């Protein structure tokens, strides 16, 4: 079978990682085209990866590149327009999270995905591809901890990235949509029910600049599900020890904890400072295996005609809940979905 020819849009912090993976680590894929409005990013794609066809505009890439699929890693505000245009052109589509930054954008994508149901459409909820989160889901499905009734999940980024985030937040959708979108997806996946109500609080405790943008640097949200289960979802942009994503699922017969200490590896250091481990520093270091696995899954789905497990409605639900959390935080009120 011919290789799947892919065009990537967005070659920033994460797009470059995806481009490297698609070019080097995904059997059956060929990174044939790349698009970015930034010439230096295109130069990188040409020199580092040898991508043959380069475009400064997404429309030009769709019109002129001979590709089977589009990989969208551009800023979140551009996702929906790019997804719709690519589906309309008959291409398979991978889109980074969040799928869209408004419920209307997500509804339009869901409709288009139905119309183009023969094309593979995958959303980058990378944690579902992480070996530990996958294993936890397998244990849950086997009934090892009985019936789950509480998910506690957090996403924390290093404080040193706050300056980048102050700029990123303008196109990222804010702390709930940008960071907690992963925790929301995990909570729905593990509990198997829909969130019906959220109460979010938070503030700019370390970096006042986030408040000026209507955002926060530390937040907590209590969510309740239609089946009565609960979730506590928190986010922080001010961690000093490392990128600290971890999740706990509490069930009627036990608890599963995933990544409680964000260890870099299994080495423990015992010295004059005490006993400690080094930590992973960023989301990519933590989820590298997941990022490679999701790319392999996307291409395997195209080649085999299989549908991904993650559905467009998962993307819509995560955006709706993330926006409800934002509204709750801003209004100081409980929001019903
Ligand atoms: N799955 C995860 O854990 C994870 C982690 C980080 C980022 N992301 C997502 O990946 C996406 C990119 O994030 P990032 O951190 O790489 O951001 P970034 O700001 O570093 O990169 C954004 C990229 O989009 C490009 N771009 C901007 N406007 C464009 C346009 N109109 N057309 C085409 N390209 C355009 C920029 O040139 C740049 O290459 C975001 O949607 C973000 O939410 C996901």
N-to-C terminal Cα separation, in Å?
Answer: 46 Å
- Summed up, the helix count is 12
Number of domains: 2
Q: Please identify the top-level CATH class of the largest domain.
A: Alpha Beta
Helix proportion range: 40-55%
User: Which structural category do the helix and sheet elements fall into?
Assistant: alpha/beta
The overall average pLDDT, rounded, is 97
CATH architecture of the largest domain: 2-Layer Sandwich
**Helix and strand run:** EHEHEHEHEHEHEHHHEHEEEEEEHHE
User: What is the CATH superfamily classification of the largest domain?
Assistant: Dihydrodipicolinate Reductase, domain 2
At the third CATH level, what is the topology name of the largest domain? Dihydrodipicolinate Reductase, domain 2
Provide structural commentary.
This protein has 337 residues and is of the alpha/beta class. The protein has two domains: 144 residues, Rossmann fold, CATH 3.40.50; 179 residues, Dihydrodipicolinate Reductase, domain 2, CATH 3.30.360. It has twelve helices and 15 strands. The strands form three sheets. Strands 12-11-7-10-9-8-15 form a seven-stranded mixed β-sheet. Strand 2, helix 2 and strand 3 form a beta-alpha-beta unit. The radius of gyration is 20 Å and the shape is globular. Bound molecules: nicotinamide-adenine-dinucleotide (NAD). The site of nicotinamide-adenine-dinucleotide (NAD) has 26 residues, from helix 7.
Any key phrases for this structure?
Dihydrodipicolinate Reductase, domain 2, 337 residues, 2 domains, Rossmann fold, 40% helix, globular, 6-stranded parallel sheet, 7-stranded mixed sheet, alpha/beta, binds nicotinamide-adenine-dinucleotide, 15 strands
């Amino acid at each position: 079978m011919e290789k799947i020819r892919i065009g990537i849009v967005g070659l920033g912090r994460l797009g470059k990682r995806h481009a490297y993976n698609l070019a080097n680590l995904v059997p059956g894929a060929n990174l044939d085209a790349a698009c970015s409005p930034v010439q230096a990013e295109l130069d990188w794609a040409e020199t580092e990866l040898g991508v043959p066809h380069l475009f400064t505009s997404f429309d030009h890439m769709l019109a002129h590149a001979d590709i089977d699929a589009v990989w969208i890693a551009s800023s979140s505000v551009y996702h929906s327009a790019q997804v719709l245009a690519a589906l309309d052109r008959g291409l398979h589509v991978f889109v980074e999270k969040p799928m869209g930054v408004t419920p209307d954008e997500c509804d339009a994508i869901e409709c288009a995905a139905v119309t183009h149901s023969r094309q593979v459409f995958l959303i980058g909820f990378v944690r579902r591809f992480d070996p530990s989160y996958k294993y936890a889901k397998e244990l849950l499905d086997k009934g090892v901890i009985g019936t789950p009734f509480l998910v506690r999940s957090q996403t924390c980024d290093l404080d040193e990235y706050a300056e980048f985030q102050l700029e990123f937040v303008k196109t990222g959708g804010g702390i709930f949509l940008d960071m907690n979108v992963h925790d929301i997806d995990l909570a729905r996946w593990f509990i198997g029910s829909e969130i019906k109500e959220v109460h979010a609080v938070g503030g700019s405790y370390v970096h006042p600049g986030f408040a000026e943008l209507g955002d926060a640097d530390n937040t907590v949200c209590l969510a309740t599900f239609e089946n009565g289960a609960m979730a506590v979802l928190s986010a922080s942009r001010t961690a000093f020890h490392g990128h600290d994503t971890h999740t706990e699922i509490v069930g009627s017969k036990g608890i599963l904890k995933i990544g409680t200490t964000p260890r870099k590896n299994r080495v423990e250091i015992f010295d004059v400072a005490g006993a400690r481990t080094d930590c992973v520093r960023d989301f990519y270091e933590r989820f590298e295996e997941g990022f490679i696995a999701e790319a392999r899954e996307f291409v395997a789905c195209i080649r085999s005609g299989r549908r991904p497990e993650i559905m467009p409605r998962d993307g819509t639900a995560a955006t709706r809940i993330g926006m409800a959390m934002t509204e709750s935080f801003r209004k100081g009120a409980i929001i019903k979905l």
